[in-house]
Amino acid sequence: MLLHGLGATGEVWKDVVAGWHGSWLVPDLPGHGRSAPIERYSFGSLAAAVATVIPREPVTIVGHSLGGVVGLALASGWFGVDVTRCIGVGIKVQWSDEELQKAAALAAKPGKVFATREEAVERASKMAGVPLEHAVSEVDGGWTPSLDMRAFGVGRPDMPGLIMASKAQVVLAAGENDPMSPQEHLKELVPEPVVFPGTGHNVHVESPSSLSPLLVQEAT
């Protein structure tokens, strides 16, 4: 299972699954893309929603950023999912109070409506930090990013607690040049984080093949 980050949609994994010969599932997180919004955004509520579409069989989860935290929550076993391996890519593990305040301010803003689909796509892509094509919806008066802005208020993850609660093997990884997930932060949580050379925050988009060794390792 592949879980995207905040503001994105499952489409960001298209080049990863193109080279994968096993079975896979790529949902849109609640309040993103084609998935309906939920009443309250927390890592637990997101995990509970995702759990409803996961087959009741052993599964590996690869999650980017927010999706990685949701994957760790699922790996706890609290949601009835048998996660054998959880790979978190580009998770931001340290948050300042100022960053949390900015995120809360974004969560309180209404979504913008644009006159054209192209403008809405541009806005959606900017918020996600990656190019998107299917992350907008038509509304009265024009087009809007389909992201529920309230999702920005998800908060700070308790990474030590999530890792401790995990029943799965946990792998933390990030691009060599990822400013949101620097290696020194990851090393405080796991002894040997995986580093993807020459990449930034969105490894799965910048260099999809970089993830292949981790997936092959699981398959073997």
UniProtKB/TrEMBL annotation:
Cross-referenced InterPro entries: AB_hydrolase_1 (IPR000073), AB_hydrolase_fold (IPR029058), AB_hydrolase_sf (IPR050266)
Which GO-annotated molecular functions does the record name?
Answer: hydrolase activity
Domain of life of the source: Bacteria
Cross-referenced SUPFAM superfamilies? alpha/beta-Hydrolases
Q: What range(s) does the AB hydrolase-1 domain occupy? A: 2-208
Presence of the UniProt keyword Transport in the record: no
Keyword tags:
Hydrolase
The protein's matches in PANTHER family, at most eight in alphabetical order, are given as:
HYDROLASE, PUTATIVE (AFU_ORTHOLOGUE AFUA_2G14860)-RELATED, MONOACYLGLYCEROL LIPASE
Name of the protein described by the UniProt record: Alpha/beta hydrolase
